[in-house]
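Handout, section 3.2

Students often ask what a structure token actually looks like in practice. Rather than define it abstractly, here is a full record for ATP-binding protein. The first block is the sequence as you would receive it.
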Amino acid sequence: MVDSAHPRARVLLITGPSGSGKSRLSRRLHASHGWPLLQLDDFYREGGDPGLPMSPLGLVDWDDVRSWDLEAAVAAMEELCRTGTAAVPLYDISSSSITGRHVVELDDAPVVVAEGIFAAHAVAPLRERGLLAQAWSVHHRPWVTFVRRLTRDLAERRKPPLTLWRRGHVLRRAEPGIVAAQQALGALPVRAKVAERLAEDLLAPGAHHPAGRPAHHAQEEPRDDRPARPPAR
């Protein structure tokens, strides 16, 4: 029988601007701690959905939260935390379509890592359900993020190159506002190195914070404005 008052795990939400390094961080946490990983971008709506928002470029605005299915994402996270298993979609960004489904299992892990650009919007519903461990907004300097994002998107052929270039500059200019909006939704702005250290705190007794508030020592890393090395991806 599922205990609704005491879930088997809680969710660590990792968000941030596209290309900020949140996926790399999530994979490292999965590898280091064995925490199951949910790719929240798999909950995008499909390209044929008539309710998709449009951008000023006349294209679907995939950076608008309305292009994402919040209710389905929260339902999957809750199912995984309470029952130990959840069937989630596999989404192909290049074709804007769901191509299949796969099962994610908890395996007695106390934390589920859930990452995506819209993850901060899940803070409130997860907190209401007693399922929120922490929420972080991973970010970097906007030009570093721009190069990383463009390199990744071109390599994966996510969209036509000109679309990626235009979108990249729009997101570069918007990045400070994106991070501020995610913070307003309840995600703590951090650099990836700081986040990895904070992850250790989630393993300590009594580390879960049902209200979703960060621990008192969870501070932002001092900014380093020295020129960055070329990104690895």
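Discussion prompt for tutorial groups: The helical segments are 22-33, 70-83, 123-128, 142-156, 161-184, 192-201. How would you have guessed this from the sequence alone?
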